[in-house]
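Project standup — Tuesday

K.O.: blocked on the structure for the chain from last sprint. Re-posting the sequence here as requested.
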Amino acid sequence: MEKEKSGDKREMYRQRLICLGRTALIVLAASLVSLYLNWSGVMKENILMVLLIGVLLTGAFTSGYEYGVIGAVASVLIFNFFFTVPVHTFAIMNPDDVVLMAFFLAAAFISSGMTARFRRQAAIAGENERTARKMSEMSERFINVTGEEQIIALGVYYIRENTGYEASVRLTGDETANHTNDRREIVIFPIGGIMHQTGELRIWTKDRGISAEHEIFIRAVAGQMGIALDREKIYSEQEKTRLQVEREHLKSSMLRSISHDFRTPLTGIIGDCDLILQKRVTDEREKDGLVKDIREQSMWLTRTMENILSMTKIESGADFISRKEEVLEDLVYEAERHVSGLKDSRKFEQTMPEEVLTADVDARLMVQVLVNLLDNAVKNTAEGGSIWLRVYYRNGRAYFVVEDNGRGIEPGQEQAIFGEFVSLSGQGPDQKHGMGLGLAICRQVIEAHGGEIWAENRAEGGARFTFWLNAADAAGAGDQK
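H.V.: unblocked you, prediction finished:
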């Protein structure tokens, strides 16, 4: 702080020396012009006007009333010494010269005072213009900034850049903010909100005090911060309300989907059971068909419940993955067993790599992903359609590709189908409406395993779903190119 005060004093002395030098040069120049005019025969009254112009120029090119006074006194002494009788002395014999010099001093003092006043007003107007420009820029920046941390950082930055003070912000209810025991070092400004005080702005003055100009600017910054923080709080509350409404809407949609989608298979199961129990079906082949239908409907209900439980775990934020080293071929065969209508009513082809691939995955969830993709292919292909499952290994990744020759994906919906409650209804006789959770779960599970999944339409017709996982060749044979 002492170094700062010493630097300020040196700068003040330097400015004074500059102004004194300018005053001396202007008075000297006016004196030389006056001597030349006197030598040319110009009357001394006109010469005095030249010296008065010098006084006016002194007020214009220096700061402060005192330099004009110094210039005026010096000009009078020069006029008395060179241009009044007796010359080259400071004696005055003619009373008119005394009156002339008195009026000159009065005019010089008045003009110096007015010039100094105009300079101060011009400086104040310029400073006000700069302050207004800063205020406008600051308001625009605060309108565009979002987030409490960014708002506070912007306010602290403007105070430091425009006043030189360090600042900190303590929001209402924030008990973790830094405190100081020396209250003399800080000045506190309230950060006002619309309804109540949002916090307080602490300025670290280091006992230098705060000027009126800086105080106005700091209060403006505090006001802008209060408006921005209030806006952020209102936006946050609106966002919470919106999310809560969406959550309630999703719950309602889920309940409607459950009641709708469970009713059809349950009605079929109950009807088939009634036919068997009432012995209305005597043919063994028809009984086997009913039992098969009951099993398929039950498996569909089981998969639906698994999807619901998995999505509940995912949305709760819990750690829903239990990883273990698994052979990927085993997971594929396990998934195929759980998809009804895959092999008996569709043309299914499977292609596996020569390598024995292993991956650190949750076996139950990975089987569920494959089941959802294969079941989706069954739903969207007509009876007798073709479904392909290819697995290949490349650059440390195992790629799974499920394709069908069904109706494909509606253009522009390749990403949307991975959202919750987005369902693509099938068109065949075996199709069920579905809740639209299967593909959403696939995406969440694959991304949680560090992989990626995407969908596209085949050029030949139908859809293609591809995902990859980090995997390794159990035999260490290297990557397949």
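K.O.: great, moving the ticket to review. The radius of gyration is 45 Å. The first strand starts at residue 166 and ends at 171.
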